[in-house]
Write a structure and sequence with these properties.
- With 154 residues, the protein is an alpha/beta fold.
- The protein is 50% helix and 19% strand.
- The protein has helices at residues 28-44, 63-73, 92-111, 125-153; strands at 19-24, 52-57, 78-86, 115-122.
- α3 links the parallel β3 (78-86) and β4.
- α1 runs parallel beside α4 and α2 (63-73) runs parallel beside α3 (92-111).
- It is globular.
- This is 6,7-dimethyl-8-ribityllumazine synthase.
- Belongs to the DMRL synthase family.
- It comes from Acidovorax sp. (strain JS42).
């Protein structure tokens, strides 16, 4: 939920992490801002620039395929999915939102790699614009927190 109380994570340290980012180009004005906010937060959390791999795909439905290719390489401590799906006049919104989300979740479970899902789904452009920076930052923080947690649990 936008503006929700997300709680406070313990110290987030990304110094030793390798992060993969897959960004959908569709609604590029939004996804570019998501990506910039995400990258800035990763760097702020200590992830080294050289340890961030950022790739672009056409749209949200293609994000899981690229995430899978990254997960199969076993080089990343966490992955991040970035995209923006804005409701239109047809059922296509539900299809893209549901299938991209299911694909991201399935990959995280199948490969046991944390994937921060910041494929935002909104009713309109105004909602997307209001969320683009916060959700990019959130994705970076989730990726770092979950990568560290899974390392601790292994």
């Amino acid at each position: 939920m936008f503006g929700a109380d997300k709680g406070t994570a313990d110290k987030l340290d990304g110094k030793k992490l390798h992060i993969g980012i897959v960004q959908a180009r569709f609604n590029e004005n939004i996804t570019n801002t998501l990506a910039a906010a995400c990258r800035a937060e990763l760097l702020r959390l200590g992830v080294q620039e050289k340890h961030i791999r950022h790739v672009l795909v056409p749209g949200a439905l293609e994000v899981p395929v690229a995430l899978q290719a990254m997960a199969e390489r076993d080089e990343y401590d966490a992955l991040i999915a970035l995209g923006c799906i804005i409701r239109g006049e047809t059922y296509h919104f539900e299809l893209v939102a549901n299938e991209s989300g299911a694909g991201v979740t399935r990959l995280a479970l199948d490969y046991q790699v944390p994937i921060a899902n910041a494929i935002i789904t909104t009713e309109n452009l105004e909602q997307a614009l209001a969320r683009q920076t916060e959700k990019g930052v959130d994705a970076a923080r989730v990726a770092v927190e979950m990568a560290n947690l899974l390392e601790e649990l292994s």
